[in-house]
């Protein structure tokens, strides 16, 4: 079997509770969503078909402990589940970054799911698959990417409605160069939210570009 791979690269994890850790990123081509703030539109198309053996050999060449499977939307390719299993079997600590629009219930239980819940500001909130919330466990994380105050207030309500704090860590991330991080920080502190605010470390270091 094979997958359409846009890029495999070694960098620092820029988001989630693993921020700062040296990580191999396996970026799959393609995504069914079109978020207004998307920073990986370049991965909607292109890339090359690679066998699982080729993918694992490339990952191994970087000698890293952590692997993040991302996109685009990696779960849009059916073979993604097999890749996740093979990476776990190989002894890596594996995470997957997913939009929340595709069922996560069949993801290997050893994988940490970093799942977006799309806000109204993304223009794709209608694609949220709310049944995914029931599939989350303590090893997973939910991420809200926020455009503005309206998104922030919406996210607060979703956290309450679905009791997300009892399920897994919750991440708030401001859209790069749109919502000032200090403004989001002020709101989080004022409201005493049980969330981890994050900025995208890789963009702080290298700017907004592919391969980092």
UniProtKB/TrEMBL annotation:
CDD domains: Radical_SAM. It holds the Pfam family Radical_SAM. Catalyzes the complex heterocyclic radical-mediated conversion of 6-carboxy-5,6,7,8-tetrahydropterin (CPH4) to 7-carboxy-7-deazaguanine (CDG), a step common to the biosynthetic pathways of all 7-deazapurine-containing compounds. [4Fe-4S] cluster binds at residues 31, 35, 38. It is an enzyme of class 4 (lyase). Belongs to the radical SAM superfamily. 7-carboxy-7-deazaguanine synthase family. Its EC number is 4.3.99.3. One of its GO terms (biological process) is tRNA queuosine(34) biosynthetic process. Residues 18-208 form the Radical SAM core domain. The keyword Iron applies. PANTHER family: 7-CARBOXY-7-DEAZAGUANINE SYNTHASE. SUPFAM superfamilies: Radical SAM enzymes. Binds 1 S-adenosyl-L-methionine per subunit. Binds 1 [4Fe-4S] cluster. The cluster is coordinated with 3 cysteines and an exchangeable S-adenosyl-L-methionine. Substrate binds at residues 12-14, 27, 70. Mg(2+) binds at residue 40. One of its GO terms (molecular function) is carbon-nitrogen lyase activity. S-adenosyl-L-methionine binds at residues 37-39, 72. This is 7-carboxy-7-deazaguanine synthase. Homodimer. InterPro entries: 7-CO-7-deazaguanine_synth-like (IPR024924), Aldolase_TIM (IPR013785), rSAM (IPR007197), rSAM_QueE_gams (IPR027621), rSAM_sf (IPR058240). It catalyses: 6-carboxy-5,6,7,8-tetrahydropterin + H(+) = 7-carboxy-7-carbaguanine + NH4(+). Its cofactor is S-adenosyl-L-methionine; Mg(2+); [4Fe-4S] cluster. Keywords: 4Fe-4S, Iron, Iron-sulfur, Lyase, Magnesium, Metal-binding, Queuosine biosynthesis, S-adenosyl-L-methionine.
